[in-house]
TrEMBL record, chain A:
It is a multi-pass membrane protein. Coiled coil: none annotated. This is Branched-chain amino acid ABC transporter permease. It comes from the Bacteria. Keywords: Amino-acid transport, Cell inner membrane, Cell membrane, Membrane, Transmembrane, Transmembrane helix, Transport. It comes from Spiribacter insolitus. The lineage of its organism: Bacteria, Pseudomonadati, Pseudomonadota, Gammaproteobacteria, Chromatiales.
UniProtKB/TrEMBL annotation, chain B:
InterPro entries: ABC_transp_permease, LivM-like. This is Branched-chain amino acid ABC transporter permease. It comes from the Bacteria. Keywords: Cell membrane, Membrane, Transmembrane, Transmembrane helix. It is a multi-pass membrane protein. The chain crosses the membrane at residues 27-48, 54-71, 76-94, 100-120, 165-191, 225-249, 261-287, 299-318. The keyword S-adenosyl-L-methionine does not apply. It holds the Pfam family BPD_transp_2. It is found in: Cell inner membrane.
Amino acid sequence: MPALETFLQAIVNGLVLGSFYALIALGYTMIFGVIKLLNFAHGDVYMVGAFVGFGALSLVSGVFGAGWTGLFIAILISMVAVGFLGVIIQRVAYQPMLSAPRLSILITALAVSLVLQNGALSLTDGKYTAFRTDLGFGGFEFGRLFISHQAIVLVATAAVLMIALEFFVSRTMYGRAMRAVSIDKDMCRLLGINVNRVVAITFLIGSALAAAAGTMAGAYYGSIWYFMGFLIGLKAFTAAVIGGIGSITGAMLGGLILGMLESFGTQIPWIGSEWKDVFTFAILILVLVFKPTGLLGKSEVERM
Amino acid sequence: MNTSTGRSANFIDRLYAFFDSPRRQTLLLVVIVAVMALAPLVMGRYMTTIMTNALLYVVLALGLNIVVGYAGLLDLGYAAFFAVGAYSIGILTVQFDWNFWLAIPPALVAACLAGVIIGGPTLRLRSDYLAIVTLGFGEIVRFGARNLEITGRATGLSNIPEPNFFGYVISSYVDFYYIFLLLAVAAVIASHRLYHSRLGRAWLYVRHDEDAAEAMGINRVRVKLAAYVTGSVFGAFGGIFFAANLGAISPESFSFEQSVLVLMAVILGGMGKIPGVILGAFIIILGPELLRDLGELRLLLFAVVMLLIMLLRPSGIWPERRH
């Protein structure tokens, strides 16, 4: 039955796309939750993650090969390195701005985004870089339905990372501190919580997740370039908003919903792939107009 | 090091204070406009073209300043208004063979409609959500332009006729320099009048405290919508003459980056402050040009400089003082 296969293929594609969105959306949501900043540079952190992962893979491939082990180690290296990059960005660009007008810190975030993008542009000459792995193009075939190995590992890795994050936030001391800081920063400071460290950890984790997503995207799509973070960053943000920005479960849910919507959106005859992105933003606007706090968000009144 | 930066900030502050008096400002403005009007006589073609672009940005930034600086509504999709103006002119003159000047009123109406469409749903939202909805609208307009037949899809529209002014064909780069200078001066005057108008004060109140403003009898919805519509008219004027100047438009001229650059001009210079915004527009356009010798690194360096400016002067270089 071709219709069923098309349907299942759309679900698979949606899951893969959704995992990317969800991993990046988590960073957006955590950072927004803790310091109320829309970190517009987050999509570019994802891009940097892809390039660091690429570099790490070529470093370790001599020892571990460019197969699963090599890729896994590359992802880990990228997560650590880019995680610390996130902390540096926060310390240098955002920390001094916390008491400045809300718009200024937003512009700073845009400036950081430009720095990362143009830094990558200068280093790579703006060319697409082939991200080669030895994973091949194998996978499972069920009639016309095709699930690549990469897709399976990617979705599984994303799921593991998200479960680990959920555990971290709900069970560990720093996770608890993070939730407390997101509610009332000043009260936390009075109670002796090292707010700066909590914010740094938030950036560390958020950036590391984006780096993981970036490296995996490189392996999945086979090429990376300096501008890859822009649109996916916007979409991940959309995912975070759909789920309710500030909510971690919401970000995961939003990512999956957006991935599915996009995947199915391209199947609708009169929408087609050209209109895919319009579709995303139309959904974003509808969600915001009818349920401004997103699906799982708490209502809060926020001013500029 | 600390003391020296402190002293220089003081010096800058005193400089601003000196130019804060309205009379000195008007005088300065007249001098600047006179210099600008004579400038093409000495500037080469390259420099004149860049200055034309900077003047276009002055118009755009002043328009966005009304939305962001006056009314406090963060708009990340301002390029959409710019696009509506440019595409309206393009479609009417290229696809329907309209006269350029006759096509201006419909283009402005289209921009006002876009303002109402974008403003409508956003009135319910606040701050960050608002930013994201405007961003979404901006992208929808661009993707729409890229996929519709009438907008020429990805290639855009070309052969937009040069405007004919009572027999004089406006075509050379110097002509367009003067057109944009005229537009910029008109934008400054309009901004100034709006700032001191009843509506301008209403924007100020809504920006500071929406609920209190409403309690005082200000129609919050109407006031915000007015900001969007006014901003869109500025943007559309920019777009109309941008299309006429280049003779060709494509969807990529109206990307998110464009919106961001205009917003940066506003915030870098100092939101709500007309001279600040003009300064910001010039920095945004001339900055990368001055760094052109650095080749690929220039945008990187520019971004770093911008970051530094924000870190040292979070409210912009020439911030607003009225509280």
